[in-house]
Records
---
Amino acid sequence: MKRFFNTRERLVPEALEGLLRSPAGKDLCRLDGYPDIKVVLRRDWDRGAGKVAVISGGGSGHEPAHAGFVGRGMLTAAVCGSLFASPGVDAILAGILAVTGEAGCLLVVKNYTGDRLNFGLAAEQARALGLKVEMVIVGDDISLPGHRQARGIAGTVLVHKAAGHMAESGASLDRVAAFAGDVAARTRSIGLSLSDCDTYDEEHASRLAADEGELGLGIHGEPGAQRIALADAGALMGLAADALLETLPEGDARYALMLNNLGITPVIEMSLLLEAFAGTALARKVALVAGPAPFMTALDMNGFSLTLVELTDEIAAALQADVGPTAWTGMAPWQEPVVIPVPALPDIFAAEPSNNSALRDAVQRGAKALLENEEALNALDARIGDGDAGSTFAETARVIDGALDRLPLADPQALMQTLGRLLARHAGGSSGALLSILFATAGRSTQERWQAALLEGIAAMQGYGGAREGDRTMLDALIPAVRALDEGAAWADIVRAARGGADATARMGKAEAGRASYIPDGQLDNVPDPGAEAIARLFEALVPGK
């Protein structure tokens, strides 16, 4: 897999430096101790202010955790290890010494052996130096029932939030630790992923087949509790939500949900997953929601995790409190989407329908031609674009053909106005929008002749679309054909003009507009523009009596 990095050894220090240069790091600083001591802390922190410090950390690769949550209302400092590796005892001790005053500090630790040991040893050394230190261990993973050591995963972030809020309020160390421990005990998480993660290993090979995913996985690339078959988003979300639901005690308790992006799941899919969650039985128990967002990731893992925390009034207030770190995107009430009425849109069929048998017949022939050429035009477009030109023109044809009985076919100006509104509402793609502009402008024209009005419409197409004749677009067929139409040419000459314009695009080595303008020179040789070809085939089908 292609990655942006210099060396694996320098990855974490260089990433932390980048964080400190960014807007998210404007209120942060670090201890001078690279490469062994990688500690990020609040620049505004005053050890003598009488507030408890909250420290967390662990292996890197989970960004924005942990350094991204350093700031007012969350962590005072984050101790960062190498990729998926606990920081050393000296680094943790340095972090404790840097931020701990008389009020003491709380360590929030994920339940992994290395983290427990190293943070525990550092805590003992700090106590030996006379500092007050408490530790809360988070084990929120529910994927391995009965396991003595449940892993600490994304739910750790909610403990950061709760502990940080309590510490910011000026509470004592005992109170902060007790509150954080209570939140940790009420928190449970489960992850689901369609991929494992690559820890910058040149020999990396995925353990999952193309049709497999995993349910119940940690955040270090370790295998999930079970392999699952690939399914749609609703079914996959149902698996994760049901697994959480089974662990909840009976009763009417209300919960906060955190939907966490485990790495590279696209934003649009994360939003879809939250909507999928709304269809689960578990959603009925949720009162607050955070995300979807990356909170505790696993490098490039394509997956998500769900975290629930049972709410009390105090926990709800802590989770909703404002904080400094921008990586915490906030928590808000779970609610149904707010929907307001659509404003009244122009009536597409404002004009009375009327008939013109010759025009009706021509429209039907044109629609039939575009539908019959859908696949051929798509294949042509696939050579230089995204392969949907034929489908776009075919959809335009379906829209117009389906509205034939409601069109004012006997009134050219009203017809063009109606077609403009119809295509604006229903046609897709840039070609549909451009044709809508053509007809809408022509329909507003003061020209006495509808042929001249169409030329005005073409001028509007050029103004909005930015293309001109010779730019290798559908205009290369449309402009000469409409120009011949305006000049009163015979249909054979009109069709010849359209066909000649379309054929000429195959000899144009470079497109100056549209998607084809991004295609390197040489790849367009002898390939006509799909839009121009569609226009030519349309005019060929419009020949009277054909």
---
Amino acid sequence: MSWMKWLPWRYLVKRVAHRHGFLDPIALLGKLHSFAQPSEVGEPIELLRAGVVFHARGLINSRVIQHNLDWVWPYWVERQFDPEDIAFIPRAFSITHINLSNRNWTAIGQPDVDELPVVDPRGLLTPFHDGWSLDAWLLADDGRCLLLSRCKTARQRQELEGGPCVVTESELDGLALTSRSRVVVENGRAVCEMVVKARAETSGSLVISLRPANPEGISFINKVRLSEQRDAWTVDGKQAVFFSRPAERHHVSNYREGDVRIHLQDKEDQSEGQCDVGMVTAAALFRVEAGEESELRLRVPLQDESAPVIRSDGWAAALHGHARLECPDENWQFLYDAALNSLVLHSPEDVYPGPYTYKRFWFRDAAFIIHALLCAGLTDRAERALYQFPARQLKNGYFRSQEGEWDANGEVLWILRRFHELTGRPLHREWQEPVRKGARWIENKRLSENIEGPHAGLLPAGFSAEHLGPNDYYYWDDFWGIAGLKAAESLFAPIDRETSEHFGAGAQEFSQTVDRSLATCEQRLKRPGMPASPYRRLDAGAIGSLAMGYPTQLCEPDDPRLLDCAEFLLEKCFVKGAFYQDMIHSGLNAYLTLHVAQVLLRAGDARFLDLVDAVAGLASPTGQWPEAIHPATEGGCMGDGHHVWASAEWVLMVRNCFVREEGDRLILGAGIPPRWLEQDKPIRFGPAPTSFGSVSVTITPRPGAAPEVTWEGNWHDSEPAIEVRLPETRA
């Protein structure tokens, strides 16, 4: 309110803080901001809001978990709180307890359905976003109990036939459990299904337990009720879990009475439970006879009757016409197919970079994910996502997903250009004004050329990609700004020559400005490598400056600034063969490792393959990557446990290994691993959209002779210049 500015609120806050023995929060924030470049926007409010929610849960975790370690907790808790486990994290001065060592989960679902259940590494199923979970145990009559979250070893895989299905298997002392979790279509509605099979050498009970927790921590349950037929739960009066047969025994517990696990042998049976603090646990028990397999099916409806009817053949339709990979490397093949499934799952209309922590929209992630959709031939899905963009553009032309990120406009215009290049279509009429306004925003946002300092003429200091560091004049933003203006030039070239030339001239002038700024860095650092900003030393944040080479291709593949930057990163910022981002992420990054690999591939540097293989080795058994990977546990340590930007980069990496554009020509086969050519099975990829049209590539290895490379194109115009660059094989 306007009158607030007249109140001496800063003085009041300071006085109250001192009276109660606290540091002055305003002075402290001022000190924090002094470590960043002056900026019109601090940390984006969206990230602050998300951080508050994240740590609020962590605060609840700290109040509940460590005082109740006799409960059965999710896998990450069992490991992170175990002092004998490599994932152990001390808690002494940690205000919040957060999953920092095993942030891994796998999304399951149906195409174009927004609900994305997740499964953790031990089969814990969380049907609803940020909600409660379902766990399966096996209790023998002699008291032995198989608890998957406490098993040091288990087998997990993802099956893709007919849509993603996560299978988890574990055995211990004659007890065996297998769960299969997926989302199926029943009567036109999405239903989360979990099929559990149990086998024991002695008689016992299969236990299905309702858990007030998930892969992030506590998720409250206040009330649960068992149906009169004993074949369903109602959770908090709204969500339902159906069993394929009635429960023979049923127990519930609350926070004061402890976990329901300690009540499994109770003689008294309860049909409902309630907990004022939201820590209801429940267990439905089903008889298992000695030596016989017992199967139980759980169903959790994800949609009500008002939801649109969905297709029963959704996966076949969603993947129709996609670029197929056929290669002799089973791991690469599986990771490619799993990545395609991830892209489809996370693009119900908008695109999401994850099913849980990142189930929201950013232009940055969207640009890369949509690019992967386009390059994989999923054009309609990509176009639908692009049509969600204009509603997020402000009147001044800014494509805003969160304030202070000055790369967004360039990324939007660049991906629009790629869409029109890959489809061969002219710029849609309804897109002309958003593109014009978006390009003008870039021009207007730039700083004056007349100010002192190497940031003159660049985009302002901003938060940009959070892993580059505090607010600064990031070259990442500038490279995307240039790419955006060049995209506007290209998009308007066939329809408005004057506007096209205007934006083309703007791109050239902006590029020259950045070159002058980079020259000051070269003089200061005594090497051509590009730091994150004009005022930074070379550090891990320099990963952002690789955008000049990948994916924007603003420079030649052998640009010394680009290659020296990559060399610095390879020498100083790699751990276990992968890029280690020591700022914010503090983990190994699959998608950023692949950015370096793409730069090396363009330059014809064979070391790219070591990086790609390292990323393949870091994938989970279900074919996913968390955003950042703990160097010791190799579990997730930051971000979403199923990171779709990483999936997108794997698709783009495979595609560019087979076919990529370089100027006015196509390069075929430059990234094919030499080991693939030492066997005799054909290798295929396609049809793959390119800026010249779609192409299918077939490589026929002939051990002892040169491989044969053939292609079939459906060109927008005439066939482009094509260069085959297969790697050399061993003699």
---
Amino acid sequence: MTNSEAPTDATVRLQHIGGIDTRDVTLSPGVTVLTGRNATNRTSFLRGLMGVCGSDAVSLKSDADEGLVELELDGRTYTRHLSRKNGRVVFDGTPYLQDASTAELFAFLLGSNEARQSVVTSRDLHDVIMAPVDTEAINAEIRTLQRERKQTEQELSKLESLESEQRRLESRRSELEAEISELESERDRLAERIDAEDQTVETQHAQRDELDETLRELQDARSELETVRFRLQSQRESVESLRTERAELESELESAEAADIDRDEVTARVEQIRGEIESLNTTIADLQTVIQYTEDVLDGKTDLIEDTLVESTSSGSVTDQLVSSETITCWTCGTEVEESQIEETTTRLRGVRDERRERRTELRRELDELERDLRSADETQSKRQSLRRKLDRLEGELDNRTEQIDSLTEERDELAARVEQLEREAEDKRGQANETLIELHKDRNEVEFSLDRTRDELADVNDELDALDEQFDRREELEAQREQLTADLEAARTRIQSLTSSAVEAFNEEMETVLDLLEYENIERVWLERVERRVREGRQKVMQTQFELHIVRTADSGAVYEDTIDHLSESEREVIGLVFALAGYLVHDVHEDVPFMLLDSVEAIDSDRIAALVDHFEAFPQFLVVALLPEDAQALDDSYDRVEWGDE
């Protein structure tokens, strides 16, 4: 939301959700307090709001076949439909988020929230903070960048080794150009002397007409020879241009590497993954239904189990019987079991559900990658076919012009021989007196021959230099590419470290602030430390980043000592768990994805401290929705909106 936009209310409508028949609630920006006793469906409302935001942690009312959660916000409407099909609940509609996993971790802070529980159960806090980050994708990116940079450095090293060859060829080209210049000067000098001698011979020779005829033939032959030489030079230049174009096309073809995939195998794998995802969706929905039903029973929602236990012959209210003892009647077999056993089973089911979700996420990632590979393979194949057609046409033209060069070279050699023959005939006709003119013609013919051979060699040298220049032209591009790859590699390597460092910093800052606000007298400091430990991974040991939670307490004597989370009160543990979730909320910028933060199950914290926590958390989300008992809600600021919840 920009500064120029006024905050708008959010309207939530529920039908047949959890223990709720129908309920409409309007939430204003800021804090909304849901006040009411336990088992009044406040949690059902919060789970419904989670559901319309994209979470699966929402249940359908036990006596309903269909349910609906609708959210109106910023002029748009988001929906989540629940329906019972073949004994399981399926979801449909357009939720606020396509992937609500990060919000479930750090914004929807109900009692079962994983981030909160990870502190209480001493889980690896680093893994929880990094859960939304695809570390495997980052590591794969690092490996790809390392491979590309190594290839770039090898190309640059190859160019350096070619520099000496380039210097040798440039030196040889200079020598040939100087030699050609000298030969052309010599040819022009001989031509001037021949013209002068021709005039002298014409006045002295008695057989002028016959000699003139021979000289005309000689001149025509020389003219034709010059024409052939010009055409030959033009063809060579054309060939040089075509070779340059061919090199560019070959380079482009080489850069468009053919995709190394088995299309049939990839297609089959795509279909397999889609089937497995569909199966996982079914399993996750079934598990969520069971988990939610169990949680609702444990929360005391009697309307969810009365139908199941209608055959019970016990006297009194079923809810009273379940709540009044430490055991509970199992709704699957009818036997009495301890509530802790059901909670333990529910925890295991959550673990299985989370494993299926993680597997589904991995499969979706693999499916996206395979589909990208197929599209890339199609595009690359089309491009390579087009380039090959162009190369084929170019090769045909090169072959044609090369044949013309060979033909013209042969014609040039024949004309040179014809000129030499005519010079001998002219020599015979002119006699001894014209020996100087004959020698001049012979010398010029030899110069022309040397000139042709030198030009041929120069053309070959230029071809080699052009080929090298094409490679050297890429030097600047390769150096820039190497620099960019190095920067990208460094950024990828520090991305995870930056996130973990930010998480530690956010937790420590927020924890210090909250401890000052709540005034826990015997807690001196609570802080996270980022450590690197060598752990076994398969057959080898690798360095792994972990978070250590430190708790510094003050004894009655005033001595300071470090304690563990197990020795803290339930209130203190809950506060640390909430602050840890808030750190994840800040590090992953969850407020940019979802405007809601939900807070429930904070009864272990005393009223004044709950009020201080709510005041502190209010600064972060657009909407903070808090479920509280009436006596706890009284301690909050009177300016906060309140929604009363009673028995429904």
